[in-house]
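Lab channel / #folding
Pinned by the channel admin:
"Please post every new chain as: sequence first, then the structure tokens as a reply. Keep commentary short and put observations after the output so the thread stays searchable."

First post following the new format, from NK:
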Amino acid sequence: MQANADDMAEADSLKLKIQLLCGEEIAMGPGKADLLDAIVAQGSISGAARAMDMRYRRAWLLVDAMNRCWREPLVETSPGRAKSGDARLSDAGRRVLDRYRALQAALDNTAHGDLLAGLNAELRREPQTPAIKAQARSSPARGGGPSAAG
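Reply from TO:
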């Protein structure tokens, strides 16, 4: 049996995401890895935040969470002009980011096997309407439906 275009589109619908947890905190995930890449490219947390269309405070909180989760800080900062300081990955930050990206690549390379195909076959293209919304649509309007007393 040959796969058609719809089957091929469905094969790409299941996405795997790696999140490394430190207690309840996400120590590393795709967004945090992207933020680290942006810090490397921009040289500052504020520049990385702008490049990612993110508020500075959000970026700073993500960096703070990463620095608190790992044995060594991943991002080192130095005071700079006005509000914008320099930031760079520490040696630990570079190691963690490189290993995380390698783990992502390994998962991507192995994710096209039978297990992923089986899960993908079970997955809907779009989620169903939540039960509460579906129930509201199917029930008669207040006062307009038949009486419960009959």
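NK: Residues 6 and 12 are 10 Å apart (CA to CA).
TO: also worth noting, The longest strand covers residues 25-28.
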